[in-house]
Design brief:
single chain, 3-stranded parallel sheet, D-amino Acid Aminotransferase, Chain A, domain 1, Rossmann fold, alpha/beta
Length: 273
């Protein structure tokens, strides 16, 4: 991970962006191609009075170039008069403050669980989701990738989540219980990219504990568990004990999402006979 500090008083120089990116391990032409992206993002944040300017995920294409697949930006409210030309170009009405929507009960509950324990981070959204496959997923851009993978293969997500930073068992359990308690959820898929800052066994214990406390069979309720990384051998042993299907890093996130979708669709077909 690379980290650097920039001043709001001077133009952010490219060489500072290059220093930060070099700490992530990029070298050569890839470092040269990635540097302008971070430098421009820093300038955008300064020039347009942003309180947040984030690109996530940033994808590396086959030809070695980089492209921003998604971005999130927030502007300081007091800067709206000064930035009126930009807001007009974007079609943002002067009376539109773009205030956050009212969180659902699911979102409030997940936030309370996260606030009650400083270990790790969990987030949950369910606005716009009404499916039958609950998602306990993480890894920032990996969450977006996994949600898209479920949808692209015919699945119907019931929510969106992010879990990471080595949460406690109780925190992972609380998130899983909230997902499992949503109307219409039949199974959950627990998936992340390869993790180094989150213990696989802790997440496994948490989601299994959630199933048991809700009187659900973990082997039947967890459609797939795909979290390779730190302490994965211990985590896989726990999953085996409860008959949960899991896969390691040799199975892509796309394929893992497909397995979860296939499993819930097979049960629907069997139930209609």
């Amino acid at each position: 991970m690379g980290r650097g500090h920039l001043s709001n008083l001077v133009e952010p120089p490219d060489f500072r962006a290059k220093e930060v990116i070099s700490h992530t391990g990029l070298t050569g032409s890839e470092l040269t191609r990635a540097t302008p992206i971070l430098a421009r993002l820093a300038r955008l944040m300064r020039d347009y009075d942003m309180t947040l300017a984030e690109i996530n995920p940033l994808a590396r294409l086959a030809d070695g170039s980089f492209v921003a697949l998604d971005a999130h930006m927030e502007m300081e409210n007091e800067a709206r008069p000064r930035q009126r030309p930009l807001l007009d170009d974007l079609g943002v009405d002067p009376t539109d403050m773009r205030e956050p929507y009212e969180p659902s009960a699911f979102e409030r509950n997940v936030k309370a669980i996260d606030s009650a324990d400083h270990r790790g981070v969990i987030q949950g959204k369910d606005h716009g989701f009404s499916g039958n496959l609950g998602l306990v997923i993480g890894a920032g851009g990996g969450s977006l990738t996994l949600t898209d993978a479920v949808r692209s293969q015919g699945g119907r997500p019931a929510n969106y989540t992010e879990i990471g930073g080595n949460p406690s068992v109780s925190k992972a359990c609380g998130l899983a219980k909230e997902v499992l308690s949503k109307d219409g959820v039949e199974k959950i898929a627990v998936m992340m990219s390869i993790v180094s800052n989150t213990r696989v066994d802790i997440v496994a214990r948490g989601v299994i504990k959630a199933c048991l406390e809700l009187d659900k069979d973990p082997g039947e309720t967890i459609a797939i568990f795909r979290i390779p990384g730190a302490w994965e051998e211990e985590g896989f042993k726990i999953l085996e004990r409860y008959g949960v299907e899991y896969c390691d890093r040799s199975v892509s996130m796309w394929e893992a999402a497909g397995r979860a979708v296939a499993k819930i669709q097979e049960e629907q077909v069997a139930g209609s006979r």
